[in-house]
Amino acid sequence: MRTLLYSLGLIALQACAPAAQNEEKQQEETSAEQQMTDRAKFEPADGKCILFVGQELAAIGGLEEFNDGYLDHFERPGGFTMYTKIRPGDEEFGFTYEGLAGVFSTDDWGDGPSNMSRQIADEDFEQMALAIGLELVNHEAKVADGTHDSLVIALGQWIKSLGQRPVFLRIGYEFGGAWNHYDREQYMAAFQRIHQLYDSLGVENVAYVWQSHGWGMDQSALESWYPGDEYVDWCGYSFFSRFDEVEMIEFARKKGKPVFIAEATATISTETVKTNGKTKETILSKPEQAEEAWEKWFLPFFKTIEDNEDVVKAVSYINCHWKANRMWFENPTFQGVDARLQTSKMITARWKEKVADPRYIRASPELYSILWRE
Prior knowledge:
The strands form three sheets. The chain has an eight-stranded parallel beta barrel. Strands 3-4 form a two-stranded antiparallel sheet. A two-stranded parallel sheet has the order 10-12. With about 375 residues, the protein is α/β, with parallel strands linked by helices. The protein contains twelve helices and 13 strands. Helix 5 packs across helix 6. It has a single domain (about 50-370), classed as Alpha-Beta Barrel (TIM Barrel), CATH 3.20.20. Strand 1 (about 50-55), helix 2 (about 55-60) and strand 2 form a beta-alpha-beta unit.
C-alpha cells in the first residue's frame, strides 16, 4: 500500500513539474518585459552604456577640415555631444548670439567652432545619437514665459527632422552651477515649457536630460531643482574634479531614472580646489601627467560606470584641448588641461581596451533599433 501511494505521489509531482516550470518561465518573461517597459526613453538594458564624445568640431573630428579628433583615432562612439544657446543679443568672447548658435551655421563663442548640421550631413556621423547641451543663461525667464518660443520651436522642428536619430536634450545643463546663475523657479518652468512645446509638436525622438554640475548639491538641493518625474527622462551630471562628492547617482536611483554622465574630462583636484576651483596641470601628451590622470581620474571614472551599471547608462568624454580655447584661458579648472586622448599612446591603448568592453554601445546599423527598443 505504501509503495502504491509513493508511486501515485511521484506521478503527481512529475505531472506538476512542467506546469511549475512553465509558470516560472512566464514569470521571468513577464519580469523582463516589465523591466523593458519601465525603462526611460532611449535607456539601454542594465550593464549597457552609450558612449558619447564631445564637444566641438575639432575635439570630435571626422570632417575634412577637422581631421585630428576622436573619430580620426578611435572606433566611432554611439553618440556625439554638441551645444547651442538660446541667448539672443548676449555677447561672449566677441561673439553675439542670434538664432540657434552652432546648429545651422559654424559659430565660435570661445570654445572652438561648432556646427551640428555639418556633422549630421557627414556620413561619418551616421548611426550615432546626438546629445545637445542647451544653454539658457540670462534667458530662462523668457523661455519660461514664451518670449523665446520661436527659437525653442525652431530647435524642436530641427530635432524632429532628424527622424529616428535619438537626441538627448540637456536643458539648462549644470543648472546649479554658480557660473550659470539660473533662477531656480524660472529654470524649472523653462524646462517644463520646452517639454510641453515639443510634445505639442510631436517631437518623439528626444529624451529630456536634467543635468547638475555635480559636487555641492545634496539630496535636498537636487530635489528643490527637480522639474518633476513627468518632465525628466534622464538625470545627468558632470564628472570633473571633486567627482567623489556627487550625489546624483543616489538621487537618480531613488527616482528610478537612468544617469547620463554628460560631461567628463580628465581633471585632477589640488588642495585648494574647493576654494578656488584650481586643478592640476593635466596635459595628456606629457607621460608623467598622463599616468597620474589615468590613476586619479580615468580609473575612478570607469569604476563609477562599472559599479553602477544598473543606473549609469550613458557617458560623454570631452576630448578637448581646453587650454587652447579662449573660453578657458582664465578658468581655473580647465586652463591647464589638454584632455585629447590621442595625444598619449598609453592613454590611447588603455582607453581602447576599456571601451572595447561589450557594455559600451558604439555606432552601428542596429544602434537606433537598440535605443528605440524595436
